[in-house]
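Ticket #4471: structure output looks truncated?

Reporter: J.K.
Steps to reproduce: submitted the chain below (214 residues) through the standard prediction queue, then opened the result file.
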Amino acid sequence: MAKLEELEARIERQEAINEIINLQGRFEHLLLCKEYEKIPDLFAQKTPGVRMEIADGGVWEGIDGVRRIFKHMRQGAYDFRGTMMGIMVTTPVIEVSKDGKSAKALWYGFGPATLPGTQYPGNPDQMNVPTAIWVFGKKPCDYVKEDGKWKLLSFVFLLIFRTPYDQGWIRQPVASSFTQNPDLCPPDKPPFRYMPYSIERFMSFPPLPPERGE
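Returned output as attached by the reporter:
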């Protein structure tokens, strides 16, 4: 009997991991397709602790905060000609709690994107021109099982570099900001102060240990 229960637990854990991978992939797909209004549905609607932290943009708390930031993106912040947010998630490390009700994951995100008005130092003519960029960062995220389905509890993107494609991360590791005008969609908490190549933040989330006890 014990072996059967152990097998059932292993199957449930693997199913949870598969669902979480699909959930995160769906998030990235909707982001690339600019279907911003659908993304809040991927977050927990009833469980406390929902939040989004977007690099140096700040922290938005609660499901209402998540809806607010994606409404802002839909209303023009990231809905302009030439926009793209093709951040691919890779190298997942996912650990499901022993009770099967919550999980943590760590991803790397890398890919091409576009920012409105990315600034080139010393070149004011380029200040308001949409710019192709490379983005690289870490995504430590939390998940919760709500009404039988896995949902995002917290989505965090920790910036390693965000550079114009023709400058590279050596010349300009951090260009402009993800929130061009914070007054239009102010965060609930201020952003962390990012420094190029700083290990202070993005190295503070190592891969998770196996067999988490929470």
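Triage note (M.O.): checked the attachment and the full token line is present. The longest helix spans residues 2-32.
Status: closed, working as intended.
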